[in-house]
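User: We ran a pulldown and think these components assemble together. Before we commit to crystallization trials, I'd like a predicted model of the whole complex to look at. Sequences follow.
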Amino acid sequence: MKTAANILGDALFATGYEVQDAPRYGAERRGAPMFAYVRAADRTIVERGAIVTPDLVVVADAGLLGIPAAGVMQGASEATWLFVNSTEPAQAIRAQWRYPGQVVSWPAGFTPPAMHNAAATSASCAGAAARMLGVIARETFESALIAQSTGRSAGAIETTRSQGLAAFDAMGGVDRCVPEGGEHPATPPASPDWIELGADDAALAAPDIYAQATSEQARTGLWRSHRPVIDYEHCNRCSWVCSTLCPDSAIRVDEDRTPRIHYDHCKGCMVCVLVCPAHAIRQVSEQAAQAQEIEP
Amino acid sequence: MSRLLMTGNAAAAWGARLAGVEYVPAFPITPQTEIIEMLAGWCERGEMSARLTMYESEHSMVTGAASAAATGVRTFTATSSQGLLYAMEMVFAAPGWRAPFVLVNVSRALASPITLEPDHTDVLAARDSGFIQIHCATCQEVLDSVLIAYRLAEHPRVRLPVLVNQDGFHLSFTREPVDLPEEARVRAFLPPFDAHQAGFRASRPVSQVVAVLGGSPYSYFRYQVHLAQREALDVYDELAAEFAAAFGRHHGAIETYRCDDAEVVFVLIGSLAGQAKQAADRLREAGLKVGVVRPRLLRPYPASALRAALRGKQAVAVVDQNLSMGSGGVLYAELAGALQGCEYMPLLVSFIGGLGGRDIGDAEFFAMANEARDAARRREVPEPRLLYTARELRELRKLQAIAGTGGVQEETR
Amino acid sequence: MSEQPYKSLKDLPRSHALSPGTAMCAGCGGLEALHEALDVLGRKTVVVNAAGCMTLLANYPYTPFHGSWLYTSMASAPAGAQGVRDALDILRDRGRLADTDDLTAVVLTGDGSAYGMGLSATSAAIERGLDFIYLCYDNEGYGNTGQQSSAATPHAAKTSTSAGTQGYAGEKKDLFAVWAAHKPSYVATVIGADPLDLARKVQRAAALKGPRLILALAPCPTGWDFDPGDTVEIGRLAVKTGIWPLKEYADGRIVHTRVPNPRVPVEEYLTRQGRFRHLFEPERNDALIAAIQARVDRYWDDVG
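Assistant: Here's a predicted model for the assembly, 1013 residues in total across the polymer chains.
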């Protein structure tokens, strides 16, 4: 998503806007959900940091919509447009997640790149966003796609270019649908509710964790785009291979030697799929798996 | 109680021994080395029941000290100058661990150029670390301060490491009479370390000193160290009173000398205060009412005590034995901040002196007092002044002539 | 910890001493080795950590540990272990620590610390005879900051500071030899992809006292540029090609615990990783590939 933001930033800047784009990193490493922001204006941008009230939200991984902790809808109102990297009809997405504003997804017949192709996904999401803003010329956007692929192989540059432009072209139906954001409201902001911080006991006031294994409350399962699924008919109950080699200790073995994948934590690395001696673990797209969970 | 001649270094070592220190991470550096040599000798001969471990650097030494304190033993360590700077990453990290231990720093001026003699730029570099700082002016104070420092560090409302500072040479290598308190009376004042529930135990796992994400939890944890320091101001006063009751010596957060009726006051830290007091006596004989204020606690900063002591004075000469490049004296800037907005506050005049162990004599104290008084009369704040004489520059030029001028022409010098 | 030596994979621990939910990358070979080692060591450990990828194993208020953890700094984790160990000894000697409450001090660092910034503190801890286990996850670069070259980076590897056609010009430092030269109690190389070999070595180390190193090659999907699922396969290839010899040092002797025979050509290992792609694209760099192969061959010729 950082690349998508950079492409959009480059294109808006080349169009003549003042631009600010930035990724937002957490502790998590590659594979974890991440955000990036783009601001564009016809004057110097003095605001910084996260965008509190976005005009357009672009969601590259539709799987995140169902997860409140991912915070995809944060700050969205009736006035916020939502683009979802999905071939599902926009109205269905809007209804399913009770989204307050307008929703756009890929038009019927358009095939977006596979999610695991991060560069192509970034390019196509940037293409959709660029067209929805409607202020970026096709050639300008093309230059931005190429500029952001610098240093990659000729094939990779071409993939990025063609995927980005295909998305840009496919979104003609929603050209310039996102209006420019308004000024800040004239009313002064509410009081920040400051308090006088008091000294706490040193044990509490140190960054120490007294409880054990609290990381189990961190749902790294959100990182997945695909999930491993054990076919218990073929699992030979070897009792250790997948569980030992899983980097994250996310596979536990029951008393009866049956391995159980903890989907709250499985990051979807697929090590288990590749090492299972019985080939009893297969890779399933997360969206499909979730859909199955909802409508079994 | 016996009265003995001892150096500041010996006083620091005796402080650690009497405090019942159990662990001493050590690394040598001039002028501190004597402290760890004494402690090592006592440990070796069984006169002190502690373990001394030689580390390979001050950075490791302070890591080891904080780690041992976090595990629940009473820990003492010492360093100086470049060593303090080499340890600086851990000096800033340790207070956040909320693990109490005592570090004696023997102040020595910093490179470059490298030198062995004292000033306070080393210890002031640690000013914002979260360590409590106690600055000593006599060898007695060094010993007493180590004892008070453990009570303060281990106090449930504080739980922070404490740095006890003494000047290299002027204290560290200077013998003077020191009252050596009896061990039993020290133990009554300073019982063994009670780590409460802190420390690593198989039955009580803990993840200590973990990362935080974002400015909000970070602000909380950092500000808690600040708040613990503010708590330490009150705790310190209580402990100083308790120490005075037990041993008959009162070491307040600030020391004031002939201040009540003073028109001009010297503000300075460390052993140079003795010189200032002597000058104050002579200036009074010459007709100018001069006093001395010496902060012993520099962190937490005793702002209200300083305001009370300086209110109504005409002028203050701040003598900074340190230099914040591009700004000037650190004590001066801090004092100006503390007095800002208060009524009946004196005019502050800044002097930089005593860098790298340069002496400051009576004549210079006289001149500083007069300049400060005159400035107050004119109501003009003069530029900060470096105490440096024409004779010194002439002597320096002779050295430069020997060293060669590096191509600089005589007339442009 | 099991008292019986691990004879087969079936004997390996089935419960995990490290919980999931950490911030490590998907497919992290270092985390794989760490959890396999901790599964053997058990929960009576205090992990003393240096700055590196694993700094963020614990981030407030989340910790994967059932035992204890202390973060120190990049350079001084062994000194932290020294302070903790000395303090535990003092407490035990004075009757303030029950034997059952004692802990094994485990230093955990990446290669940046182990091969570079922390080496002075490590050397000193070994020479003091510190009773500790040092676990290094070696992903051959400063992975936490985006894989710049470190003293552990192999010759010709591309990193973000050696991105030219020849890759990294230096040679990977032989940390095993550096440790062994100190004559410590135990030194071993391991890899998460061979859990039995790893478990046996950790078990052997745990039974000894004094300074002990477990040096784990840590295949790194992000830093080495491969698909996260390939972590184990790349680890196995590192062993099969002879690039990562699995060996141990004890009592002055070095023993190879796995001898790849016949050795798979290094090319099979190199082609699987983006960091070596420049050796094959746009043109094959036969000279450099041959040099890497020759170095591996020479190693195995020398050990006989």
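Chain C touches chain A through 48 residues (CB under 8 Å). That may be worth checking against your pulldown data before setting up trials.

User: Thanks, that helps.
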